Amino acid sequence: APSQRNSAPCCCSYSTLKAWLPILSWLPKYNLKWLKMDVLAGLTVGLTTVPQALAYAEVAGLPVQFGLYSAFMGGFIYTFLGTSKDVTLGPTAIMSLLCSSVVGGQPHRAVLLSLLCGLIQAVMALLRLGFLLDFISFPVIKGFTCAAAVTIGFGQVKNILGIQGVPQQFFLEVYYTFHKIPEARIGDVVLGLICLALLVTLMFMKSSLTSDSDSTCSMYARKVVWAVATMRNAAVVIAASLIAFSWEVYGNHVFTITGKTTRGLPPFRPPPTSDTTANGTVVSFGEIVKDFGGGLAVIPFMGLLESIAIAKAFASQNDYRIDANQELLAIGVTNIMGSFVSAYPVTGSFGRTAVNSQTGVCTPAGGVVTSVIVLLSLAFLMPAFYYIPKASLAAVIICAVAPMVDYRVVAKMWRIRKLDLLPFFVTFLMSFWAVQYGIVGGIAVSGALLLYSMARPQIEVTDHGVLVMELSSGLSFPATEYLSHIIHTRALQVSPPRSVVLDCSHVSVIDYTVISELRDLLRQFKLREVHLIFAGLQPSILKVLLAADLEGFRHNHSVDEALQMESRNLLDD
């Protein structure tokens, strides 16, 4: 008996440990087959990650090595803390755009932003605040992702054209890009268009392979085409770099290349908590945080939203479940630890997660292999990155963000609920001004629509000799004035006054303000010698109303019963 009592707490503590460290649930069952599949998936994703990380650093306005600094910590951390076998954490187009808008291309601030975002995300996970993400509606998310795709994609046109001196602000960027077209470099334009054409062709080849199962191609040929198409980003960037190198060797500067990058692995050190301007002025931690402004709220939320949406999608597709709060913790810890290796904020990547899933990854350990590929690139390949043409990275980014422009969603919202187009377009249009304002504006409009629906609940009024008013949802304080207005205009202010049966069968929420208003309504009905009868009350609501001790309160189990009783009262009168 004593041993049984002692084993129970041990069992409970181990279950708790497994909840906080999901690696303990799959590591004891790990086998050679899983290892082979994880290594294959990790290698494939790694070859996709390296060129994308370099390209996304450009979007963030940072030196290209910061993309790689941000791409390896997630694989290690997520292996221990993640609950999805498919998700890969690292730089993404949206997070890079948000980072650029907040830190303005200053590396030290980007690293500090990663630390602060990670702390916010980790605290949200520990306090189980993941439900707050539910208040960001689908139209807001879609409006933002569409605007982000347009902003990011158009922002790379200058690199395809090889023009310099274009400002970051979207509207000025559009103006100056067109204004400087005569300055375009022929080499960059030709190389950029060829890279775009190759990437699009390989993308369509891959999609045709997955959709055309009856193809006459041999299995070996299909595998080769699939492998090349999957690693198309790396293949195109390597080919473009070789072309640029061959021209540079002979002294022909035909292409705009990445140029000198910092070699080697980043040092492991605490993120800077202050900054120094070009003229030597020291900017304190408080001033930096103040400069971050609303971005410090928007970036952690968007990072969580993007990653959890991806995790849920692939969990549903591959038939397993994730823990949303544990995912928050994994992202938060990744950003905290990433800040010690000069990373900027990261989140889950849809494209790389899709590659991971399609390659057959079995556990989150595939992320370790991907991280090792990134570290090897940092250790040994940085000199080669000198020759990467910016036009090839621009082509990679444009092809990555193009699928995010989902124009069909507008038609769907028009058919289902036209009012949803309002937060969509507010978010979409405001995001061109400043991305964080677009998200905040969209959330504000969505919140206003939600509050309006609470303040103006649907009330169906039918006449059965006695008025029956059916409430379609809960009764909370914003709705009291509207309910009172309907009852006064339809029953109390007519001549003669009429009794009302209030059908509350759909009401599951009621608050003190409503109770106060009902007390006043019952008094008004009594003064006019008519009745307000409640029908279909749920037990919890009935208990609250009885506890309120409302004078003249009458209730029946159903509307029919209330109508019969009121009809008898009218006959008796």
TrEMBL record:
Broad class of the protein's primary localization: membrane
Keywords linked to the UniProt accession: Anion exchange, Cell membrane, Ion transport, Lysosome, Membrane, Transmembrane, Transmembrane helix, Transport
Any matching Pfam family: Sulfate_transp
Ranges of residues in domain STAS: 465-573
Catalytic activity: oxalate(in) + chloride(out) = oxalate(out) + chloride(in); sulfate(in) + H(+)(in) = sulfate(out) + H(+)(out); hydrogencarbonate(in) + chloride(out) = hydrogencarbonate(out) + chloride(in)
Listed transmembrane segments: 63-81, 111-131, 143-166, 186-204, 224-247, 292-315, 327-346, 366-386, 393-410, 422-452
UniProt superkingdom: Eukaryota
InterPro entries: S04_transporter_CS, SLC26A/SulP_dom, SLC26A/SulP_fam, STAS_dom, STAS_dom_sf
Gene3D superfamilies hit by this protein: STAS domain
CDD domains for the chain: STAS_SulP_like_sulfate_transporter
GO MF term list: antiporter activity; monoatomic anion transmembrane transporter activity; secondary active sulfate transmembrane transporter activity
RNA-binding is among the record's keywords: no
CC terms in the record's Gene Ontology section: apical plasma membrane; basolateral plasma membrane; lysosomal membrane
UniProt membrane topology term: Multi-pass membrane protein
Subcellular location: Apical cell membrane; Basolateral cell membrane; Lysosome membrane
Annotated PANTHER family: SULFATE TRANSPORTER
Main function: Sodium-independent anion exchanger mediating bicarbonate, chloride, sulfate and oxalate transport. Exhibits sodium-independent sulfate anion transporter activity that may cooperate with SLC26A2 to mediate DIDS-sensitive sulfate uptake into high endothelial venules endothelial cells (HEVEC). In the kidney, mediates chloride-bicarbonate exchange, facilitating V-ATPase-mediated acid secretion. May function as a chloride channel, playing an important role in moderating chloride homeostasis and neuronal activity in the cerebellum.
Family statement: Belongs to the SLC26A/SulP transporter (TC 2.A.53) family.
Protein's name according to its UniProt entry: Sodium-independent sulfate anion transporter
Naturally occurring in which organism (per UniProt): Astatotilapia calliptera (Eastern happy)
